[in-house]
């Protein structure tokens, strides 16, 4: 196994000689769960008029090459980390093996872009009090500059959502990731949402755990997050006497939130 960098891992199935090489590159691209990835674009680096190939539903690609040229291949797919992978392996300057140009295909494991983002995200431990609001939301987490929420197809509460931030992870389960994010709806509303994401980078469920608005400063929402329950408290300051309402949820082992009227 060759480690080019943390983004790709190459599993070499067979070592071959240059004389037996095909006049094309071929391989199979899979994700971290060994599932084929369709629609990955592959082409040669620094070669003018390079052919371009795209993986099919089985993850297979075949890319024409010149018999006199063995280049580096570039793999690009939205939602995954792009990188350049050599077709020739060298050690101490000597050529020792070839990749992609044999009858038996080479397997490329492509790592999702979101994986690296989540690795560096801060972890908070139980119990957690979340009162994300306009005064403090920029003090934690980081802007979603790499478009992680777009990659996992996060659906915000409004069409004019902006200023997306990734705040922290919560260690609920090894079966899924639990992430708290925030975003604005226009200039006056701010939402903090707890999202559960499975190992295929798909959203399982989501729950709004904090809310703030500055138009009337009359409504809000905060939460207390514990391992066995999540208590969301809504506040209404429109009345002469403020109204507070608690809602309790349980996060199940499948990553779904279940509303509990009374625990």
From TrEMBL:
Presence of keyword Signal: yes
Keywords of this entry: Signal
Signal peptide: 1-21
PROSITE patterns (UniProt xref): PROKAR_LIPOPROTEIN
Source domain of life: Bacteria
Keyword Signal: yes
Protein name per Swiss-Prot or TrEMBL: Carboxypeptidase-like regulatory domain-containing protein
Organism taxonomic ancestry: Bacteria, Pseudomonadati, Bacteroidota, Sphingobacteriia, Sphingobacteriales
């Amino acid at each position: 196994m060759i480690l080019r960098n943390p983004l790709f891992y190459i599993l070499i199935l067979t070592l071959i000689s240059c004389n037996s090489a095909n006049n094309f590159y071929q391989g199979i691209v899979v994700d971290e769960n060994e599932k084929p990835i369709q629609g990955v674009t592959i082409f040669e680096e620094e070669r003018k008029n390079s052919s371009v190939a795209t993986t099919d539903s089985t993850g297979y690609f075949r890319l024409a090459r010149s018999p006199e040229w063995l280049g580096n291949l570039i793999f690009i797919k939205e939602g995954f980390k792009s990188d350049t992978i050599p077709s020739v392996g060298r050690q101490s300057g000597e050529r020792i093996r070839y990749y992609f140009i044999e009858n038996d295909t080479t397997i490329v494991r492509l790592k999702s872009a979101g994986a690296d983002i989540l690795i560096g995200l801060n972890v908070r431990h139980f119990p957690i009090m979340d009162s994300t609001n306009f005064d403090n939301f920029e003090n934690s987490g980081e802007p979603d500059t790499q478009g992680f929420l777009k990659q996992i197809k996060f659906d915000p509460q409004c069409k004019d959502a902006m200023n997306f931030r990734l705040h922290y992870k919560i260690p609920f389960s090894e079966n899924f990731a639990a992430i708290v994010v925030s975003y604005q709806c226009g200039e006056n509303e701010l939402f903090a949402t707890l999202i559960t994401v499975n190992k295929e980078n798909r959203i399982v469920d989501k729950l709004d755990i904090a809310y703030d608005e500055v138009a009337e400063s009359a409504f809000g929402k905060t939460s207390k997050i514990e391992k066995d329950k999540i208590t969301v408290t809504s506040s209404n300051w429109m009345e002469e006497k403020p109204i507070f309402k608690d809602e309790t949820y349980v996060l199940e082992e499948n990553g779904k939130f279940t509303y509990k009227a009374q625990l």
